[in-house]
């Protein structure tokens, strides 16, 4: 049988991005087999290297220089330290770009032009290059030159208007997501865009510029909430842990904790009603269909909240699962990694690390049957591969970088 390589084996990526959206994109490409050359500022490197504690610990339990945040988005990459603001540095980046397939950057609009590293300059020396720019607001429009930050975009882009407890309840008000979802989603869209451009290049032989904006991606990911507004003219509001369109689909308090009940259709509501000892609820015209339950949400939820407080969380979970009602606990992250399902899926991985011995990493959720993801390299130390990369590109005699 012919040995099959990783999907992107042989593809070289010049990564000029930092923090999260860009590195998340390039880590996706790295996991698929691409060779990622991470260009970093000498001495300081990617901003997230300093975003700690916590830091990776060595075998003796002492903090290393590697922040956990940085580790989350930079495995399977090689690091080269280049001062792109210097003439030597910008010239070197252009030399590397001549032999690469993809370039990823997240500088402000126009920020790389003064170094001759913008798309129009680079495509002259490598017309096959796929050049992906990740910015806050895109290459066009009145806000194009403004910087973009995940937190600000979550507020500006509408997510915080629909996230958090209802304004009329204790604790009500806008709430951001617990992770930088805008950065992460932008990194995912950038990955998809690059893969599409690679496929198109197989036909045309030419690269192109990809313009990906945090605000655009953020608005796109609002999905059904956008359509709720676009079809009704009414902007959705915060609903806490309840669903905007489905009832009951929310968190309930039990006698000793909380659980999620996610009734997705009328058949499941009938099963749920029976499981909680109130089959009559499903027969009541006010609650028989999801539309009627939406119209009578307040009255129904008041009844259900009283019932759900009469038993423990785990007892409810057992009863509801036995009845085929979608439900689940609310776990802390340490509890997540103790789940038998999570252990069975091998989601906690470790990679050899030059300072710490080993470093933890979260498995890529893509599971290929023939070309499985490989965890080849831990997130690199700053400039760890500078000499190696210069030799590989036959540039070691021409450039002697001080790191």
UniProtKB/TrEMBL annotation:
Record SUPFAM superfamilies: CoA-transferase family III (CaiB/BaiF) (SSF89796)
The protein's UniProt keywords, in alphabetical order, are:
Transferase
Please name the source species: Advenella faeciporci
Q: Which domain of life is it from?
A: Bacteria
A Pfam family reported for this protein in Swiss-Prot or TrEMBL: CoA_transf_3
The entry's protein name is CoA transferase
Q: Which GO terms describe its molecular function?
A: CoA-transferase activity
| UniProt cross-references to InterPro entries, sorted A to Z | CoA-transferase_III_domain, CoA-Trfase_fam_III, CoA-Trfase_III_dom3_sf, CoA-Trfase_III_dom_1_sf
